[in-house]
């Protein structure tokens, strides 16, 4: 049976096809390639300060985070309803929850997602990703911006409902912030 092209759905409308194409790409080491609302968006390897902040946060999450949690560095987080696959700097998810996908963490299993803003990427972290993580009901979203115009800052977003975070606050580097449950500890940003 012959099918006319104008009767087919566009290739990018098929989430499985989109993710399969993403997996099949040969990405240079250190680079990230995210799917953001069906667009492939590359990000260059992080700078030294970016990596330092990720290391400090990783250590705190492993040592002080919730029992049974897995802390992932740069694991992909899938949000099919937003047609997006993000690769945040850190993801905390329940250890007992196994994904049928060996590559990605489903957003609904994530307890915390942390993005460290990097130059031109900070706008998408602040807008598209903020909205997408809230839409997926990720309980805690940390946006860490060492180059924010008002000075280095950690933004804590929590309590998602109706595709928005109901609680948001900014803490300048050097301050402390209480990470709400399910994370549940006080983070001192002085090491950032």
Layout of strands and helices, then pairs:
Elements lengths: L14 H10 L7 E5 L2 E5 L4 H17 L4 E5 L2 E4 L4 E3 L3 E5 L9 E3 L3 E7 L5 H14 L4 E6 L7 E9 L2 E9 L3 E4 L5 E4 L4
Parallel strand pairs: 4-7, 8-9
Antiparallel strand pairs: 1-2, 3-6, 4-5, 6-8, 9-10, 10-11, 12-13
Keywords:
single chain, 192 residues, alpha+beta, 3-stranded mixed β-sheet, 3 helices, 21% helix, disordered N terminus
Could you describe the 3D structure shown?
With 192 residues, the chain is of the alpha+beta class. Strand 4 and strand 5 form a beta hairpin. It starts with 14 loop residues before the first helix and ends with a strand. It has a single domain, classed as tt1808, chain A (Alpha-Beta Complex), CATH 3.90.1570. It has a 6-stranded mixed β-sheet, sandwiched between helices. A 3-stranded mixed β-sheet has the order 5-4-7, covered by helices on one side. The chain is 21% helix and 36% strand. It has 3 helices and 13 strands; from the N terminus they run αββαββββββαβββββ. GO terms for molecular function: endonuclease activity. Keywords: Endonuclease, Hydrolase, Nuclease. This is Uma2 family endonuclease. InterPro entries: Nuclease_put_TT1808, Restrct_endonuc-II-like, Uma2. It comes from Saccharopolyspora taberi.
Strand order of the largest sheet: 3-6-8-9-10-11
Structural class: alpha+beta
Task: Give the N-to-C terminal Cα separation.
Answer: 61 Å
Largest sheet: 6 strands, mixed
Q: How many structural domains?
A: 1
C-alpha Rg (nearest Å): 17 Å
CATH structural fold name: tt1808, chain A
CATH architecture verdict? Alpha-Beta Complex
CATH homologous superfamily placement: tt1808, chain A
Percent helix: 10-25%
CATH class: Alpha Beta
Q: How confident overall, as mean pLDDT?
A: 85
Tell me the number of helical segments per DSSP (H or I, 4 or more residues long): 3
Give the ordered list of helices and strands: HEEHEEEEEEHEEEEE
Low-confidence stretches: 1-12
Which shape, going by the Cα principal axes?
A: globular
């Amino acid at each position: 049976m012959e099918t006319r092209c104008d009767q087919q759905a566009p290739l990018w409308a098929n989430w499985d096809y989109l993710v399969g194409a993403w997996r099949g790409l040969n990405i240079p080491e250190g680079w990230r390639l995210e799917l953001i609302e069906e667009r492939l968006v590359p990000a260059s390897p992080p700078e030294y300060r970016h990596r330092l902040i990720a290391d400090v946060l990783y250590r705190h999450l492993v040592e002080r985070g919730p029992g049974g949690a897995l802390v992932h560095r740069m694991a992909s987080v899938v949000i099919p309803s937003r047609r997006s696959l993000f690769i945040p700097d850190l993801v905390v998810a329940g250890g007992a929850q196994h994904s049928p996908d060996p590559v990605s963490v489903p957003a609904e299993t994530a307890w915390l997602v942390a993005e460290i803003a990097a130059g031109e990427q900070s706008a998408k972290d602040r807008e598209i990703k903020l909205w997408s993580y809230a839409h997926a009901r990720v309980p805690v979203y940390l946006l860490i911006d060492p180059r924010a115009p008002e000075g280095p800052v950690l933004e804590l977003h929590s309590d998602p409902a109706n595709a928005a975070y109901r609680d948001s606050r900014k803490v300048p580097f050097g301050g402390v912030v209480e990470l709400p449950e399910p994370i549940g500890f006080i983070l001192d940003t002085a090491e950032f």
